[in-house]
Amino acid sequence: MNLFNYFQQNVRITCIDGEEITGFVETFTPAKDSEEGKDEIGLIKDDSHVLIGISIDEISHIEVLN
Q1: Which domain holds residue 40?
Q2: Who is most buried in 1, 35, 42, 43, counting CB within 10 A?
Q3: Strands of the chain, DSSP E
Q4: Number of domain units in the chain
């Protein structure tokens, strides 16, 4: 999965623990620039307008919303 493909998109993410998060992908951080050494995205959640970071190993599925 290439997280950069979701940059600046509205998405629904299903996490590996089953939690679903919907929002706008505001940032993308490649593994080489990440503190944990993993690709990450920053998502502005629809329901709270809070920016949260999600690493690639926490994501089970991503769906682009129109």
Answers
A1: 3-65
A2: 43
A3: 10-15, 20-29, 40-45, 51-55, 59-65
A4: 1
